[in-house]
Amino acid sequence: MKQSVFIFLLLAIALVSVRGQDKAGNLPLSSPHLAVKTNLLYDATTTFNLGLEVRLDSRYTLDIPVNYNPFTYSGNRKLKHILVQPELRYWLYEPFFGHFFGVHALYANYNVGAIKLPLDLYPDLETSRYRGDLFGAGFSYGYHWMLSPRWSLEATFGFGYAYSDYDKYECKTCGKLLESGSKHYFGPTKAGISIIYIIK
């Protein structure tokens, strides 16, 4: 069920992307059209991240960020994950300038333990390790500041729903499996302060 909802959201984003083009398949000539970005909040957690945002028409863009953290820290602390969070954005004025609203899907595969997450998502995470998959969707708001013709700054925040299947282990590299389960979550699903480079 959760996979079907996720696939439906991705297809909906793709269909809107196609509608954003004219009948010849071309985009409007105004600029910018394409940008790359990095989220400074994820950078602060030593998570590699890179986003690509492409203009679809005079009001819509498609933002596709990918985040990856492969590290195990001292004390077997880990925030290992890969996260993909495509978002369709509607701009109140024009793409890459000012206010925007978005709808996003998300998928993550994670292996985390011996740390404390915000919002008390897993209360016993400091003494346990969780592995699993996360699926979700949400809505967001953001603002984009042009700093120069090529450089920009963006802030965004999102709220939504996520579902996770997990296995819970003792907090060791190869700890004993304690339980398997699932978790529903309503709350923040996205946060970012990003530096952006306009390619064209």
TrEMBL record:
<dbReference type="Pfam" id="PF12099">
    <property type="entry name" value="DUF3575"/>
</dbReference>
<dbReference type="InterPro" id="IPR021958">
    <property type="entry name" value="DUF3575"/>
</dbReference>
<keyword id="KW-0732">Signal</keyword>
<feature type="signal peptide">
    <location>
        <begin position="1"/>
        <end position="24"/>
    </location>
</feature>
<protein>
    <submittedName>
        <fullName>DUF3575 domain-containing protein</fullName>
    </submittedName>
</protein>
<dbReference type="InterPro" id="IPR036709">
    <property type="entry name" value="Autotransporte_beta_dom_sf"/>
</dbReference>
